[in-house]
């Protein structure tokens, strides 16, 4: 299954672009700033959330456009259209991203029931040295590609935590706090269960990989509090005074942490070389794409990934991608790094927001 007949209207620097005739491998080639990553960003918005750039909606429409944008695509299965999906901003509602599936209104969360989308971008290279929150978002995005309902659990948890913080600050009725803490515990337990399930499944996939040519990562997920709902609720109740003083809950899934070390050496990923960190990120992304492809159509977006790999690792990467079920979209400034797959790939040259099929 794959995406085809992809259209971008007033999106970033693309006034009106269309990509037809897609393949297993899809290459976007052009100079820096031409609009290659903008295409990947558009595809990433076929999933819940803010896409690969985490951009605010006001930053996305083409400059001097009417304030809206539209992205559409056909979801293909064995050469036939399985669904037509689209997401857009109505200029009359500029702060809300709308979704349509087969011509009917739908929620952004429902997109994850149709597609599993994963990505790796240069901005993620510093993930292991970034904040714990950045790694939680990374885990949540990977989890969403495997468990579509995870987005709703995370959103419900965040809403309940905000309400609890407000009640603590205002010294609200204890009965309301009891009810809100029960919600935090319910949703928090589900979020933790989903995350831990993903890490366990990823670990199985990663354990089967050879240590070379990509450095093999070992993943450990440390919960930020009890994972049992009753235990988490009791802990929140006991710690109301401490959390009121802190202005936030100091226990729960919003305090979880992902630890990554390199197999063999046991060295923390944050202390590894830039090349080793990149190799581990690629290994994790590939393992996750295998899991995502088990249930729904899977799309993998790789921004400038080939340029940072030596020929041996590039060839190994393309072989792994070819063995997987995901449709792959990649960008690069030159076609030469993709020589091993160019003959079988759909290729577009991108220039100033315009696409030319090659």
Mind explaining what this structure looks like?
The protein is an alpha/beta fold. It has helices spanning 36-44, 132-146, 150-169, 174-207, 229-238, 240-246, 274-292, 311-323, and strands at 2-11, 14-19, 25-29, 69-77, 80-89, 97-101, 104-106, 116-120, 217-222, 257-262, 298-302, 327-332, 346-351, 354-357. It has a six-stranded antiparallel β-sheet, with helices on one face. It has a six-stranded mixed β-sheet with strand order 8-11-12-3-13-14, sandwiched between helices. Helix 3 (150-169) packs antiparallel against helix 4 and helix 4 (174-207) crosses helix 7.
Q: Specify Rg, calculated over alpha carbons.
A: 21 Å
Strand order of the largest sheet: 2-1-4-5-6-7
Form type? globular
Characterize the main sheet: 6 strands, antiparallel
SSE string = EEEHEEEEEHHHEHHEHEHEEE
Quote the average pLDDT.
Answer: 91
Q: How far is the first residue's CA from the last residue's CA? A: 23 Å
